[in-house]
Design a protein that fits this description.
46% helix; 6PGD_dom2; globular; alpha/beta; disordered C terminus; 314 residues; 2 domains; NADP; 5-stranded mixed beta sheet; N-(1-d-carboxylethyl)-l-norvaline Dehydrogenase, domain 2; Rossmann fold; single chain; KPA_reductase; 2-dehydropantoate 2-reductase activity
Length: 314
């Protein structure tokens, strides 16, 4: 089974690299600059689960290649239109599409582009980033992928994927409740990214502050209310469970959105918090904390685009 991973960044490079390390037939669809970097240095993983230096097969959009059996989308949401355009020549009628993006807004886009029957549900849990050398730095215990049919069925094709993924140095798990898993993660990541970017701090000092628990739980409740109004399959007590989870994780944990902000990079504010706010407006649900978190992210985006005074933008 041939796999095409869209991107060789922090997420795709890590999980694709772990599959390649096992001996799976993996190709990475990358930009020319990343291709040159990988050809010169290799795909380098620095991880608490063990380091690896790999020499992957690389593909740049427009180059010829046979159709792939699986396409893993590991890109950021703001690159999704470009990624879909680049990957289409390598997708056949039976190609499985496995997205590892955060949130839910991308699912309908992928269904429309590739057909709902070809798109699996998927998500990942990992704390990882690219360092200044283009190496993948993975620093937490979690390096997990969940995948499954949207219907929850254990079909022949996902069982074949389960077998293909087994035994690699990362945890790939077939889920019979992937829609619930994805909505649960969306609640967690929207809350985690919301508070860590708002306060510019890892989760530890936020949750231990005088009003930390109240703020975190309040945001969880707002987002969960929006999701329930939309018909998301989340549990009645999910807010309490996720607050407990946020209180258990390492105090130094940062959200990936916070790390992107620290680097001055693009962020997924519209895909995550913005999409939830559009649902809140649709169902007429008040979400003051979610609005605050989103407004902060939009101010970041404004400041990121604003040129420095007295310096011409060329």
């Amino acid at each position: 089974m041939r796999i095409l991973v869209v991107g060789a960044g922090a997420v795709g490079g890590y999980f694709g690299g772990r599959l390649l390390e096992k001996g799976v037939d993996v190709t990475f669809l990358v930009r020319k600059r990343r291709k040159k970097q990988l050809q010169e240095r290799g795909l380098v993983i620095r991880s608490v689960h063990g380091d690896a230096v790999l020499n992957p097969k690389l593909l740049v959009a427009g180059e010829s290649a046979e159709l792939f059996d699986v396409v893993i989308f590991s890109n950021k949401a703001y690159h999704l239109p470009e990624a879909i355009r680049d990957v289409k020549p390598y997708v056949g009628e039976k190609t499985m599409i496995l997205p590892l993006l955060n949130g839910m807004a991308h699912m309908e886009i992928l269904w429309n582009e590739f057909g709902k029957e070809n798109v699996l549900g998927g998500l990942c849990f990992i704390e990882t980033t690219l360092n200044e050398h283009g190496e993948i730095a993975q620093t937490s215990a979690s390096h997990d992928v969940r995948f499954g049919e949207w219907s929850g069925e254990r079909t022949e094709r996902v069982l074949a994927l389960e077998q293909l993924f087994s035994g690699c140095n990362a945890r790939f798990r077939l889920s019979e409740h992937i829609a619930t898993d994805m909505w649960n993660k969306y609640l967690f990541i929207a809350t985690m990214s919301g508070v860590t970017t708002l306060f510019r701090a890892p989760i530890g000092p936020i949750r231990s502050g005088k009003y930390g628990q109240e703020i975190i739980f309040g945001l969880l409740k707002e987002i969960a209310a929006v999701m329930r109004a939309h018909g998301a399959p989340i549990a009645d007590d999910i807010e309490e469970k996720q607050l407990a989870q946020l209180n258990r994780i390492e105090a130094t944990m940062k959200s990936s959105m916070q790390r992107d902000m620290e680097k001055g990079q693009l962020i997924e504010a519209d895909h995550l918090q913005g999409y939830l706010l559009s649902l809140a407006e649709q169902y007429e649900i008040e979400t003051p904390l979610l609005k605050l978190a989103y407004h902060n992210l939009k101010i970041y985006k404004y400041n990121r685009r604003k040129p420095m005074q007295g310096v011409a933008r060329l």
